[in-house]
Design a protein that fits this description.
CATH class of the largest domain: Alpha Beta
Strand content: 15-25%
Number of strands: 28
Distance between the termini: 140 Å
Length: 948
């Protein structure tokens, strides 16, 4: 130790400086080729200079928990630090590495002086017979990347401060040099990689120094012109190419330079084969510090084939569009041509059904109407499917009342459901927005498809339609719909395919249920267009639940209740209905009023509830009674309540599954103040309750409510109707259908005549065909609107066989108010007549009996026209008194008198061959004999309608 120490101390500082200078000079010029050789020589030089036994360098691996010796030196008589330079774990010497990480050096003069914490280090140094040790960290950008170890194995030694400083400085040379060489290697790798990419790229690349001079190019650009890179680099365009090519290139280059920003242009130029090619050039300028373009970097793709393909694609697109237009036109024409005879089929079947038929004939008519419906559905589905397939289905964006739309869709299927004995009801959550923006007709179409399927596939039980409000985001409501039935259900393996086009759960040719297999596929597409999804859950033999949701923009939120029900804290309402779900729906609507609700499942329970609460605060004030109940029907319950003293003041509201002419009169006779048709609509129900509580007057200001209020019985309206139709068959059907409801109409056969007719008469409704000779319906409507101006507005409704996209819009744009497609749905037609007919004071016209029946009487009897007319005039003089007598007898419940007077009316009508009065009188007489008051009221109402 002393000898070596004295040797170290007598070294002059000039020797240290020389050592450092030599190492710095050497590593300043070292490269990757001679790096390891020079490093090993330097480690030997350091070891000998400081009289050490071993010197080595460790660097950490990518995973810093491992390290590896990069270079080592040892004296001849000393074994190497490691025989094989493999990765070693760092955590084998935890104390030492903590010190290396946290200090500029770790100097151990004697291993015996190691800290008690250095357990593993003592053991390792003992095995390797290390006496003294110095470790200096190697860092790059202040990050520890390795360390240099200096060891003495013969004897301990004192590490001097000056020594350590020199070795620290030398370590910086090592770490700097290694980082430099690694970066050079990485940079070279990047350059080589870029060269490989650039020269093997199919895209052409070049850089321009100015408008006409290349800086560099890649192989693809040189190859395009049949040249080498060296032929183009640093050359002028006009020295390389022919004058035409050089001019084209320089013109494009000038424009790209002028833009002075990333740009894109096309260049048509010849390649080395002389072929005309189109290059799509994208440029990006590279600026110097002064902001001038130093280089213009260009890339180019040969888009010749692409452009040719685009041209071919455009031609194909034009051909496809032409074919699509032809297809659409064909579908429109076929739709019109098919719907016209279909209108005749439907109309004549409807008329035939109203005649006196045998049971077998009625069954034939029913089947004929059924298959006609299937055919019409097929036509409609194919038209809609073709629109969807051609991406031509456009969704409207209009404001509409959501609740009304849903309730109308459900009501549409009540007749079919009632005919099968099914209960059909809807429940709409109170939070559902009042108005939304979307396509009401398409929403109806989805609901109609699902509800009609439910009715078709359900033989007994019930069908429910539930609507819930799920969430709201950015004024858009997510609405969830469920259509549930107790029908035949769907097999699990068929569920996945029912929403596919032309797919059905039962695909056999002998299947019981018809259909196109398009309804659900169309519904699925419509739901998607409304931003929603559709699904089904089903159990075979138990029923199905179809669920779908749609997103609709909110137009108006839930309106505040317009009636002040809150002041009636003591009003109690009784709901009497055998169907629990129906009671639940009605209760949910009434619950919004805050009034107290009681329920009863039949007449007996209702009477018990009324009696038990008669002298309490729960006394029943209003009763909502279903007509059809087991044991005792609604009329019979009302009659019973009249006999109970403290129940006679209860306001009664009747519920019926379907209504017919005369229902309102019959309901009034039994003491009902109003009536509602199932499924009950919330607003109608609340209107009736409000009128019962005197919160609203039952007057003419609200036609919708007046329809259900029967405080005063009125005669049927006699609307003034104009039919504009050039097709004789269609005219005959509409006229006959109107006559079946006691209505008449004026007729014109073209638009020009229609304009004259509207000028001369105030019509309630004009049914306007669109396709007519001389002047079509569109032009006729425009002329009528021009004549009327702002002083008058006649309701004009299109009645057309056209049902393609845009037909409805075309009608509305011409000035029409509504649209009915052929075949005509006569329920819709009569509803439109009812909604648009002005009220007038009617006077009975008994002379119509003469006009409508005298010719047939003359033909049957052979009498002269004068004699026949005299007989008819005597007859109609007696009619008013006879009808008054029948009316009074019905009001007095004098069934014997009703039967006697009706028998007399029947006899005289039969003698005069007045078939209409005769047939109605037969039915009325039978009802009087059976003492059926409601049927008497209905029958007499139908007789009276013949004279108005």
């Amino acid at each position: 130790m002393s000898n070596r120490g004295s040797y170290m101390n007598i070294r002059h500082s000039s020797d240290y400086l020389k050592l450092i200078n030599n190492i710095f000079q050497k590593f300043f010029d070292v490269d990757r080729i001679n790096y390891h050789d020079e490093l090993k020589k330097t480690l030997e030089e350091i070891g000998l200079f400081f009289n050490l036994d071993r010197v080595y360098i460790y660097y950490f691996s990518k995973d810093p928990t491992f390290m590896k010796i990069e270079c080592q030196w040892n004296r001849e008589c000393i074994r190497p630090k490691r025989e094989s330079m493999q990765e070693e774990v760092v955590y084998a010497l935890p104390w030492l590495f903590r010190k290396i990480k946290n200090n500029d050096f770790v100097a151990i003069d004697s291993v015996e002086e190691l800290s008690s914490e250095a357990i593993f280090e003592k053991e390792a140094f003992s095995i390797e017979k290390i006496k003294s040790f110095l470790a200096i960290p190697l860092k790059s950008d202040k990050e520890l990347v390795g360390f240099i170890g200096y060891e003495s194995l013969e004897k301990p030694m004192k590490w001097e401060e000056e020594q350590i400083k020199i070795l620290i400085n030398i370590s910086k040379v090592f770490s700097y040099t290694r980082v430099r060489l690694l970066k050079e290697k990485e940079y070279e790798s990047i350059l080589n990689g870029q060269a490989i990419l650039l020269n093997n790229s199919e895209s052409q690349l070049w850089a321009l120094k100015n408008v006409t001079s290349y800086a560099t190019v890649n192989e693809a650009h040189a190859k395009f012109f049949g040249k080498k890179k060296s032929d183009l680099e640093y050359q002028d365009l006009y020295d390389i190419f022919d004058i035409d090519t050089a001019n084209k290139f320089s013109e494009v280059s000038w424009k790209l330079f002028q833009q002075n920003e990333p740009a894109e242009m096309e260049l048509e130029v010849k390649n080395w084969k002389g072929e005309d090619r189109i290059l799509q050039i994208k440029s990006k300028p590279q600026w110097d510090k002064a902001g001038n373009i130093k280089y213009l970097i260009c890339t180019a793709e040969d888009i010749t084939e692409k452009r040719l393909a685009e041209i071919e694609l455009y031609k194909a697109k034009e051909q496809a569009e032409a074919a699509n237009i032809a297809k659409s036109q064909f579908l429109a024409n076929m739709s019109h041509e098919i719907r016209t005879p279909m209108n005749g089929i439907f109309g004549f079947l409807e008329l035939l059904q109203s005649t006196d038929l045998s049971l077998e004939q009625k069954e034939f008519i029913r089947e004929a109407k059924s298959v006609s419906d299937v055919l019409l559905c097929l036509i409609n589905d194919i038209l809609d499917f073709s629109k969807i397939e051609a991406k031509k289905l456009v969704m409207e964006q209009i404001k509409f009342n959501l609740r009304t739309t849903i309730e109308d869709s459900v009501s549409l299927h009540v007749p079919q459901a009632t005919e099968k004995g099914l209960d059909l009801y809807s429940m709409i959550d109170s939070k559902v927005p009042e108005e939304v923006i979307g396509d009401p007709s398409r929403l109806k179409q989805i609901l109609n498809n699902l509800i009609s399927n439910a009715v078709k596939f359900t033989e007994s039980g019930e069908i429910s339609v539930a609507v819930d409000y799920l969430e709201e985001e950015n004024e858009v409501a997510l609405l969830n719909f469920e259509v549930k039935d107790t029908g035949i259900g769907i097999r699990t393996e068929d569920v996945s395919k029912i929403f596919k086009s032309f797919s059905q759960a039962d695909t056999s040719t002998t299947r019981k249920y018809g259909g196109t297999g398009l309804g659900l596929a169309i519904s699925s597409e419509l739901v998607k267009l409304m931003g929603g999804e559709i699904s089904v859950e089903s159990i075979l033999g138990e029923g199905s639940v179809f669920k779908f949701n749609v997103r609709l923009q909110i137009g108006k939120r839930v309106c505040k209740q317009k009636f002040d029900f809150e002041k009636f804290n003591d009003i109690n309402i009784l709901i009497v209905d055998g169907n629990g779900n129906s009671r639940k729906v009605i209760s949910s609507y009434i619950r919004e009023t805050g009034l107290k609700i009681f329920e009863a499942e039949d007449a007996t329970s209702a009477i018990t509830t009324i009696l038990s609460n008669a002298n309490t605060e729960n006394k029943i004030n209003i009763a909502v009674i279903d007509y059809q109940m087991s044991g005792m029907n609604g009329y019979e319950l009302a009659t019973t309540l009249k006999t109970i003293p403290f129940a006679k003041d209860i306001k009664l509201i009747l519920l019926t599954s379907s209504t017919q002419r005369g229902d309102g009169i019959a309901a009034k006779k039994y003491g009902f103040s109003s009536y509602l048709t199932k499924p009950v609509k919330r607003d109608d129900l609340l209107n009736c309750i409000a009128i019962a509580l005197n919160l609203k007057k039952a007057d003419k200001e609200d036609k919708k409510t007046e329809k259900y209020v029967i405080n005063e019985v009125k005669d049927e309206l006699r609307p003034k109707i104009l039919l504009v139709e050039d097709n004789e068959m269609n005219r005959k059907i509409v006229i006959s259908m109107l006559r079946s409801r006691g209505m008449t109409c004026d007729v014109t056969v073209n638009g020009s005549e229609a304009v004259k007719a509207v000028k001369g008469k105030d019509y309630d409704v004009v049914f306007m065909d669109c396709q007519m000779p001389i002047m079509d319906g569109y032009e006729s409507t425009r002329k009528i609107r021009a004549i009327e101006g702002s002083e008058k507005h006649t309701t004009i409704i299109a009645m057309t066989a056209n049902a393609m996209a845009g037909d409805y819009e075309k009608c509305i744009e011409s000035g029409m108010d509504n649209y009915i497609s052929k075949p005509i749905n006569f329920d819709i037609m009569f509803k439109l007549i009812e909604d648009n007919t002005k009220e007038r004071e009617f006077v009975a016209d008994y002379n119509s009996i003469i006009n409508n029946n005298i010719d047939y009487f003359i033909e049957e009897t052979g009498l002269s026209k004068d004699d026949a007319k005299e007989i008819f005039e005597d007859y109609i003089k007696c009619l008013p008194d006879m009808l008054t007598g029948i009316n009074d007898a019905i009001n007095e419940n004098d069934f014997e008198k009703v039967a006697r007077l009706t028998h007399e009316l029947k006899g005289s009508a039969g003698t005069l061959r007045i078939t209409s009065i005769y047939e109605l009188s037969v039915n009325l007489e039978k009802a009087a004999v059976r003492k059926e008051l409601d049927k008497c009221i209905k029958g007499f109402s139908e007789i009276k309608n013949l004279f108005y």
